[in-house]
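Appendix B. One record, verbatim.
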Amino acid sequence: MPSTRHDLVEIARRAMLERDLLPDFPREALSQLASIPGPAREESSSLRDLTSLPWCSIDNDDSRDLDQLTVAEPRRDGSVKILVAVADVDALVGKGTPLDRRAQHNTTSVYTGAATFPMLPERLSTDLTSLSAGEEREALVVEFTSNNGVPASSDVYRALVKNKAKLAYDGVAAWLDGEGPMPEAVAAAPGMDGQIRVQDRVAQKLKEVRHEHGALDLETIEARAVFDGEAIRDLAVDHRNRARDLIEDFMIAANGVTARFLEAKGFAALRRVVRSPERWQRIVAVAAQHGESLPPEPDSKALEAFLRRRRQADPLRFPDLSLVIVKLMGRGEYVVEYPGASGPGHFGLAVEDYTHSTAPNRRYPDLVTQRLLKAALSGRRSPYAWAELEELAVHCTEKEDDAAKVERQVRKSAAALLLENRIGERFDAVVTGASDKGTWVRVLHPPVEGKLVHGFGGLEVGDRLHVKLLSTDVERGYIDFARSGS
């Protein structure tokens, strides 16, 4: 009997439990949830009323856990003030409460495609602490001025906000590129069309300046399952576009402002870092295989220039090159940065000051950072001792890695499920890995990867070929191919 979506959900649940991730909420957390009457409502002179501003959210089509809103205010001198509102999750999820302990255990929402296992119950993350359209919500606002792509004066404060337009990446991107109609939510909100265009213009300048400093423009393929009821219908890849870039660039800038704000207040805080690559010489060797040379010491500007040339020269195989570089750069991690100290920074983003602060419904480090910000704003001491932050940095890094492994496992199982009734079919493919451990190929459509178990002699990474599907194993996510002559 063919496998179904339900089987993938069960695979995800088992994979989570194997890595000590909790797929369900404990009784005490649900009891706390039931006691929450509604959204946070605080009467405070420190809470600015910004509900009249033309706030909007841009996220995935099906996202309901809306963590941030954005707005742009052009100034007479040509600069633009950007405001990023982040949902005040701490207002309903206090430190040390049952809901907080469950969130701290997993540290992240787990997105498997077949099902989402949220860090916080959906009544919170998609309703009471979500910046939903038409609803007034408490938020922390990160403000900065962009002067030709360079973030300048900045501030952080608490405010009441109201989302005027819930927008989706693909619809906004198609409209900005002149390839689709204006989204209905843009047309329905007076002045929102001009607002989005200003935000897009500022984001592109921010991106341009970051890449001049060596921010890496990578592209990897992560296919998500598309279902028709219980049956898997296809695998879809979410491609980069202008709307995704807009939000990414604003969030990078806001996270930098947050890090510097806490530093100025004398607070130790969690930073998100990607260290200078220890395997740089291997990256140099990869560039040499493409006839290019990189400096002997890690240099993000030189690496970005190499990647840009390779994307233009060979767009088909650029995702595979990107994946190689990502693996050689090493994983991102959380570390504690102390007042007056200098940290390793984020090599891939080419920024020195970077924290995670803009997704507190989905990531626990962001919720920790939010509590630090609120303490700093109110003149209170940090709610976290330095030793506690150190433990959290290690724990959040480990659990984020565990969640990524679960998501990868379910993606592989979904690919096997999609192909389990297509044994014997032939596909166009490209070699993505060739070593003593085996030869791997990526099928061009559907975008799945599997092992080439027959006919792999003489093949090199990047070679194009035809393959025949031999077998699949949904439980383990295995897909085996043989080389085909036609």
